Structure formats: C-alpha cells, structure tokens
Amino acid sequence: MKKYIDVFDYAKEILQAIPKGVLLTTKAHGKVNTMTIGWGTLGIEWRKPIFIAFVRENRFTRFQLDENGEFTVNIPFKPFDKKILGYCGTHSGKDTDKIADLNLTLEEGEKISVPAIAELPLTLECKVIYKQKQDMKALSKELCKIHYPQDVDSSFSGSNKDRHIAYYGEIVSAYIIE
Question: What is the DSSP letter of 20?
Fold first, then answer.
C-alpha cells in the first residue's frame, strides 16, 4: 500500500537523508539496478518539483539513465539494514544483480517504469527533463582535487576520477510504501 505525499512536506527528511545515502534506482532492457548516492538536490525549476541526481559518467547507472530517462529515489524512512547502502555503493550493476543479491522488495512504479524499493519506503518517481555534464573548468581547483583526483583508475565502482552528469528529474509521484 502506498501513502501519497506532497514531496515538500518531507523536504527536511529527504535532505537530511541524502548525505547519509539514498538509493537511485533505474531500469533498462528489463534489468533493474540501484546505486547509493550521497549527492542530490530537491527544488523547483521550470515550475516543476525537481530532484537533481548526480551520477558519474562511467557508472552503469548512467548508461541505464541514458537509455530510459526515468528513475526512483528511495529514501530511508524507518529502521532498515544499513548494509543495503554499503553494498549498493560498492558493487556495480554491470557485474551483479544487487536487487537479487540483497533480496530487495520491488514495488511497481505508479507513473514510470522503474520500481520503488520497499526497504527504503519514501519514494520519488522522476522523469529526466534535462541533463548536463559538469564543466570541470568551471569548478575550483580545490573541488577538483578533492572530488575528481586524476591519479586514480576510473574503471572500478568506488572510483572518483570521472565528472558527474546532473540528471534533472521532474518528480511525477511521491509516496511512502506502507
């Protein structure tokens, strides 16, 4: 059962959860994938409620988002197994099925093809309406050094060499899975 909400009534809970980790879930070619994100923005743009997710350009999730411009943001709202965030932040959906590995419960999306994850029940359903690659020249040298060191390999899941792509998702539905 889903309790529909006004996303901005839960803005504080959402924004406090992001730096601790939330899940970004995608689906393309019949494969559902989820990854832990710690960066995101909630707001209004073009008179629409927006969630902006930042995904590094070498991530499997990025390729799924480019294929199917829909995603869910799955936010803890009750006690949950914190290993979910750890696992989804250190394993690539290219190499494993994180949903099956963790025995996560998928809930069909209401307005998009991507499911929600019941274990993190506060859910935002989003449709990408704009995306933009970061302009590394526009970032300060300090931020580049901290968040985009060029002396690391970008092929593994925990790497941080690659720049981000900002995916602006219009929030088309928001609810708590009960």
Answer: G
Place of tokens 């995608």: 26
How far is the C-alpha of 59 from the C-alpha of 163, rounded, in Å?
11
> Residues 10-52: pLDDT tens digits?
999 999 999 999 999 999 999 999 999 998 999 999 999 999 9
Between strands 2-4 and 164-177, the pairing is antiparallel
Fill in the amino acid letter for 101: D
Q: Specify the higher pLDDT residue, 74 or 152.
A: 74
Between the CA of residue 144 and those of 21, 68, 119, 135, 147, what are the distances in Å? 22, 29, 34, 11, 5
CA-to-CA distance for 28 and 23, rounded, in angstroms? Answer: 16
How many Å apart are CA 4 and CA 7, to the nearest integer? 9
**Measured CA angle at 138 (ends 136, 143), to 5 deg:** 65
Question: Helix (H, G, I), strand (E, B), or coil: what is residue 9?
Answer: helix
